[in-house]
UniProtKB/TrEMBL annotation:
One Pfam family recorded for the sequence: CdiI
SUPFAM superfamilies recorded: NMB0488-like
Protein name stated in the entry: DUF1436 family protein
Top-level taxon: Bacteria
C-alpha cells in the first residue's frame, strides 16, 4: 500500500505545498524547490501544483531515510524555508510566520485522494482534528477529479483547520 503525500501551509500572504518522502517516517525532501503561491491562486493552478508535488512524493528505503536524518536535512530545509518567507514577506521572526497559518495534507492512498485538515498545536506543529465520534476529520475524493476541483476542495478543507493561536 503506497502512500504519497503533501503538506499544504496557508496564510493570508501565501500558500506553500511541500511533498514527503515516505518510509517508516515521512520526511520532507530537503532537495525540493520552495514555491510560494499567492493566496488568491486559482483553483485550477493550485490543484495542478498539488498534483505535481504529489507526483514527486515517493517511497524511500531505510538507508536513504537514515542519510537524510543524519544530515539533519529536515531542520536545515525548514530553516531555509523560514528565511525565504521572512525575506519575501518581511516577517520579523518565526512566530510571525506561523501564528496565523493553517495546515492541511493531501494524500493518495489506494487510488483515493484524502484531504486532512489539521489543528495547529504549536508554532510549526499540528495534530489530527477529531469529530464527535473521535474519528479523524478527513475527506475522500476520486483520484481522477480535475485540478480545478482538487484546488477547490483543498481550499474548502482549510475551513476545518483549527489553531491554539486563533480565537473562535
Amino acid at each position: 500500500m503506497s502512500e504519497y503525500s503533501v503538506l499544504i501551509k496557508k496564510t493570508e500572504k501565501f500558500i506553500l505545498v511541500n511533498y514527503f518522502l515516505e518510509s517508516v517516517l515521512s520526511v520532507l525532501d530537503p532537495k525540493q524547490d520552495i514555491n510560494l503561491l499567492p493566496p488568491n491562486t486559482t483553483y485550477s493552478a493550485l490543484g495542478k501544483h498539488i498534483r505535481e508535488n504529489l507526483s514527486k512524493s515517493r517511497e524511500i528505503d531505510f538507508d536513504e531515510l537514515r542519510a537524510i536524518m543524519s544530515l539533519d536535512s529536515d531542520d536545515i530545509f525548514l530553516k531555509s524555508l523560514e528565511q525565504k518567507i521572512k525575506e519575501e514577506f518581511s516577517y520579523k521572526n518565526k512566530k510571525e510566520i506561523y501564528k496565523n497559518m493553517d495546515f492541511l495534507s493531501v494524500s493518495i492512498m489506494n487510488n483515493i485522494i484524502i484531504i486532512t485538515p489539521w489543528h495547529q498545536d504549536s508554532l510549526d506543529g499540528y495534530t489530527a482534528i477529531e469529530d464527535e465520534n473521535r474519528k479523524w476529520v478527513r475527506f475522500e475524493y476520486p483520484i481522477d477529479i480535475s485540478d480545478e476541483e482538487l484546488g477547490k476542495v483543498v481550499m474548502e478543507g482549510f475551513k476545518y483547520c483549527t489553531s491554539i493561536y486563533k480565537k473562535k
